[in-house]
Automatic annotation (TrEMBL):
Highest taxon above the source species: Bacteria
Protein name: Gamma-glutamyltransferase family protein
Alphabetical list of InterPro entries matching this protein: GGT-like_enzyme, GGT_lsub, GGT_ssub_C, Ntn_hydrolases_N
SUPFAM superfamilies: N-terminal nucleophile aminohydrolases (Ntn hydrolases)
Amino acid sequence: MKSFSSASYPYALTRNTVYAKKGMVATSQPLASQAGLEILKKGGNAIDAAIATAACLTVVEPTSNGIGGDAFALVWTKGKLHGLNANGRSPKNISLEKLKEAGMEEIPAHGWIPVTVPGAPSAWAELSDRFGKLSLKEVLQPAITYAREGYPLSPTLARFWNNAYQSYREKLTDEMFRHWFDTFAPNGRAPQVGEIWSSPNHANTLEEIAETKAESFYRGALAEKIAAFSEENGGYLREEDLADHQPEWVEPIKVNYRGYDVWEIPPSGQGIVALEALNILKGFEFPEKESPETYHKQMEAIKLAFADAHQHVTEPAHMRYSTDDLLSESYAEKRRGLITDRALQPEAGEPTSSGTVYLAAADGEGNMVSFIQSNYMGFGSGLVVPGTGIALQNRGHNFSMNPSHVNALAGGKKTYHTIIPGFLSKGGRPIGPFGVMGGFMQPQGHVQVAMNTIDFGLNPQAALDAPRWQWMGEKIIEVEHRFPHHIAQALQAKGHHIRYQLEPNSFGRGQVIWRDPETGVLAGGTESRTDGTVSSW
């Protein structure tokens, strides 16, 4: 990696890298970034700022996350990186047998079947309790204020909101979905750009979470409301499932890529996809970024890593191979040997045994946070708990209906999870948090941003702005409209099926904050494909 003022990119968009010293918050929504900065200026640290920003995003970007979603975090503080997994489990009394008896051949995307225990509120409370300086009540206040007083919609937010509304009004006709429309389409339509939207119920729920340190959500009045709504509508979620939930502190996993440690949350998250791909790629040399050979090898490595993850990754207790097996040097060499000059049809190997929001925050004390939370697939299940504003996630949609698959649906189980925070360090010193939200694009975005930074010396904003690509399955690769045509043609000649995609948000939305190890200066980039911003001082 070169200096933070190093190379930009010839196809760059219009933003510049932001520099600051005392603190920085990067998100996809300006109001949320400013909320985090407000907390920093009140004396909070980066952890407080991350919690405030995350809670605020449930209000100002409900199209991608909510109180009823999951969360993960990587926290650098006092010389160590900590991992938090706040992924909720499936209800204990759900099973493949019950679904098949009901005539289901696949897990639906909406309704109660895919609803798992929400983990986000527990993440806020746990981070605050362990590392925060301010009270959770003070930290959640900006989100509470926006929910109660309202805010005007930004352009990208309004577009996604309307897209969801148009889809939901055709698909979600059952009475149990009425509360979603009451909450998010109170005037019989989606709110428009610049229109004020508020949710007093959302504000009241955030206040109760703040005052009880999330206890009400899992073992109190809010838990009772969630469970009652489930039982009334034939759902499997019960008070017992909520009461048993606990966020887990986990050891982050890493690979060393050209002298830098790239960190992810361990399975059941898919961060291992990015790490396996980088482990494969470090065996090659990449003299230039804009080369068909560079893109070809990146795409092949991602395909191989995804094939392994889709076959082998779920909650660790159910995995046949360990993280160490999948990230071993010998297995990387074996998978690397499959890459030729032609596009391959990826298959899982056998190791030798041995619509999400992302935010980055940093403060002047050296604390840094990589945080991600999601309802999955936009608004999630389409269910809003009456009188609470809680939009429930549909994370269970990722479970397999194949009983022999490691990620097969079972009661009380964590599914393969798409949301992943990333972190970069070197020689035991933090470089900083990074992430690219967006379903199965996320590990692909992590690889592209990491290589843009480490291999090609791009500054944070340029690393995000560079045209992206996404493997879609088999040999299909989608590329952005700014992707160089001559390289697309060369990749096509190698057997890739290249499709240009005009929708920029199909390629994820990322944030980056790097800290200069010598000066402590922060350099931040934010996503130009959405309403993102970097707030700093």
